[in-house]
C-alpha cells in the first residue's frame, strides 16, 4: 500500500484532522523509540518509527484520548 493511501486511511480515524493525527503519530513513534513493541505484523527492522506508527493508526491498533483542561 502506498504512503498516501495509508495516511488517508489513518486520517479517517481522526475525522480528517491532520493535527490530531500528527500528535498521535509523534506520541506513538516516541513510545516505539523507547522500546514499545510494534502492534503490526510486518518486518519493521528497516522501518522508521513514524512509518510503523502511521501504519498502526491506519489499522486501528492505536487510538488517542483527548483531555480538556479548564482555564484558571
Descriptive notes:
With about 70 residues, this protein is mainly α. It has one domain. Helices cover about 50% and strands about 0% of the residues. It is built from 3 helices and no strands. Helix 2 packs across helix 3. The longest helix is centred in the middle third of the chain and has 16 residues. It is globular, with a radius of gyration of 13 Å. The relative contact order is 0.19. The mean pLDDT is about 85.
Brief rundown of the structure:
Helix content is 50%, strand content 0%. It has 72 residues and is an all-alpha fold.
Shape: globular
Query: What is the string of SSEs from the N terminus onward?
Result: HHH
Mean pLDDT: 87
Number of domains: 1
Function: Promotes RNA polymerase assembly. Latches the N- and C-terminal regions of the beta' subunit thereby facilitating its interaction with the beta and alpha subunits.
Family: Belongs to the RNA polymerase subunit omega family.
InterPro entries: DNA-dir_RNA_pol_omega, Pol_omega/Rpo6/RPB6, RPB6/omega-like_sf
Pfam families: RNA_pol_Rpb6
Please name the defining characteristics of this protein.
EC 2.7.7.6, Pol_omega/Rpo6/RPB6, DNA binding, about 50% helix, about 70 residues, mainly alpha, single chain, DNA-directed RNA polymerase subunit omega, nucleotidyltransferase
Amino acid at each position: 500500500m502506498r504512503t498516501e493511501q495509508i495516511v488517508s486511511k489513518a486520517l479517517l480515524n481522526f475525522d480528517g484532522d491532520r493535527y490530531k493525527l500528527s500528535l498521535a503519530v509523534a506520541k506513538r513513534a516516541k513510545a516505539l523509540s523507547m522500546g514499545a513493541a510494534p502492534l503490526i505484523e510486518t518486518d519493521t527492522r528497516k522501518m522508521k518509527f513514524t512509518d510503523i506508527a502511521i501504519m498502526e493508526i491506519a489499522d486501528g491498533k492505536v487510538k488517542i484520548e483527548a483531555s480538556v483542561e479548564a482555564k484558571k
